[in-house]
Structures are given as structure tokens and as C-alpha cells.
Amino acid sequence: MKRENKIKNEESSEEKYSREMEEEHSPVLIKFDHVSKFFKNDQDILTDINLEIRKGEFVSIVGHSGAGKSTFLKLIYAEEMPTEGSVYFDGVSLDMISRRKLPYHRRRIGTIFQDFKLLSKKTVFENVAYAMEVCGAPRNEILEDVPQILDIVGLGDKMEKFPRQLSGGEQQRVVLARALIHKPHVIAADEPTGNLDPVSSMEMVKLLLDINKLGTTVILASHDHDIVNKAAKRVIVLDHGKIICDDAKGKYKIC
Ligand SMILES: Nc1ncnc2c1ncn2[C@@H]1O[C@H](COP(=O)(O)OP(=O)(O)OP(=O)(O)O)[C@@H](O)[C@H]1O
Ligand SMILES: [Mg+2]
């Protein structure tokens, strides 16, 4: 695996400009085409959503509780399917993916949730390695990849610790490492800082920004004003299942 070990600390304005130009012209990775979702006997959870997310973008999804943020992420992960319309990933409609091939689609998306779960009897290394083992990765690949990923999230020196010996922020970084292990195209983070203090939350958003700089598309659903503003990237506002704002360089706002 070729992966940059070190993340650059600061981008020059020239580098920033060329990255933004690249982003603007990069291919569409995710497309929602007239997507609506409703559950039995319920009103629309999402209504006629049309949007495109390009490769390498960092997108924050904000909105009131119940606005449909998690459902939006679940549609990308194909945990839910649209009632109407289609979600495309890399040009392929997700309803064309067979049940057998669904795990391959899901491996392209690394997920992080608020209520992260680590295996308490396994070390940091083993927790991340486990995600590779269950997919049949060879031992030598595991021994090479896991320390690299743990370095990226700043836990290179905590590989032998158990989850109970880590802070909440560190535990969430193990979850991020686990989400990165299959070299996903997308990180879908649903309230990843929900249980973290402000300092750990800022560290988490900084890491997500760093990972985004390395080329991974990031979609962040969050209530947290500070982290969405810190990201200073595209902000999509959902309200009662509709997009009411889609701002390229947005700030957290709920209209
Ligand atoms: N499986 C389901 N069956 C029925 N209704 C559902 C289901 N999943 C979600 N909903 C409803 O869809 C709406 C949107 O839920 P969703 O979890 O997407 O909101 P959210 O914006 O993520 O909210 P929060 O900020 O509280 O996490 C809610 O009213 C919820 O009750
Ligand atoms: Mg939610």
C-alpha cells in the first residue's frame, strides 16, 4: 500500500488554490437524482433531493434533529434504499448492485458514528487489524497497513493500549483508523463528535480535514456549529427532508 505517512501541516495558498480548482473539476462521485424516502405510514423523510458530490469534496450536512441527515448517509451506504429516484455512486445506481456485491460497495465507504464501538478485549492494533482480518487480508498486509493508519490518526504510540486506557477522543480516532483501513473513497461521519469535549471535537475535525487533503471525500453530518465552521467547507442544510441551502463555503446555519 502506498499511503502518505505524514500529513502536511499547512497548505500554501497556491496549493490550496490548485486543490480547490481540482475539486471543482473532479468527477462526480455521488449523485442524488430526484431522491425521496419515506417509511410505511409516514410522511416523506427526504423529498426530491437532487445533488452531486464530487471526488475529494468535504461536505457538511446540518439540520434540526429529524431533518433526515442520518437517512441521507444511510442512502449512500445503501443501508436504506430510496422510495423514489436513484442514488448513484461512481456513475452506478445503487439499486443495480446485487445483494452479493453490496459488501464491496460498503467497503468504499468508511463510516463513523457517535456511539462508536470498540472491542474492549482487543488492543488498538487488534481493533483496527480485526477489520482487515474479517475480510481475509493477509498477515503481512495487516502488519504493514495498521501501523501506518494509526500513525495518520496520531495513535502510533498507543497501539498496544486497550480502549479503556484511552480518552474518548483517542477512542474515536481508533474508530476513524478502522474506517480508513479499506482505503475508502468516502468517509461518512454521522455526529462523530457527539460524545466528545470541544478540544477532542476540534482534533477530530482537523483529522477529517487532513484525510480529505489526502484525497478522501468526507461527508460530515453534524449539529456542532464549531466543527462545521472550523471545516469552512460546503454546507448543505436539510429541513424537513428538503435541501434549503447548499453553500460552497458555508457556515453552520439552520434557517
Ligand atoms: N427506519 C425508520 N422507520 C421509520 N422512520 C424512520 C426510520 N429512520 C428514520 N426515521 C424517521 O425519519 C426522520 C429523519 O431521521 P434521521 O435519523 O435521518 O434524522 P437526523 O436528521 O439524523 O436526526 P438527528 O439529528 O436526531 O440524528 C425522523 O423523523 C425519524 O423518526
Ligand atoms: Mg442523525
List keywords for this structure.
single chain; six-stranded mixed beta sheet; four-stranded antiparallel beta sheet; 10 strands; binds adenosine-5'-triphosphate; binds magnesium ion
Written account of the structure:
The chain has helices at residues 13-25, 69-76, 102-107, 124-133, 139-152, 168-180, 198-213, 225-231, and strands at 28-38, 44-54, 58-62, 84-89, 92-93, 109-113, 186-190, 217-221, 234-239, 242-247. The chain has 255 residues and is an alpha/beta fold. The chain has a domain at 120-183. Strand 9 (234-239) and strand 10 form a beta hairpin. Helix 4 packs across helix 5 (139-152), helix 6 (168-180) runs parallel beside helix 7 and helix 7 packs parallel to helix 8. The radius of gyration is 18 Å and the shape is globular. The relative contact order is 0.18. The model is unreliable at 1-8 (pLDDT under 50). The structure holds adenosine-5'-triphosphate and magnesium ion. Residues 39, 42, 45, 63, 65-71 line the site of adenosine-5'-triphosphate (ATP).
Class by SSE composition? alpha/beta
How much of the sequence lies in strands comes to 15-25%
Mean pLDDT: 89
Bound molecules: adenosine-5'-triphosphate, magnesium ion
What is the approximate shape? globular
Largest sheet, spatial ordering of strands: 6-7-8-3-9-10
Secondary-structure element pattern, one letter each: HEEEHEEHEHHHEHEHEE
Low-confidence parts, pLDDT < 50 over ≥5 residues? 1-8
Give a quick account of the main beta sheet: strands, pairing sense, barrel closure.
Answer: 6 strands, mixed
Determine the fraction of residues in helical runs and give it as a percent range. 25-40%
The radius of gyration is: 18 Å
Number of strands: 10
Query: In angstroms, what separates the terminal alpha carbons?
Result: 44 Å
Helix tally equals 8
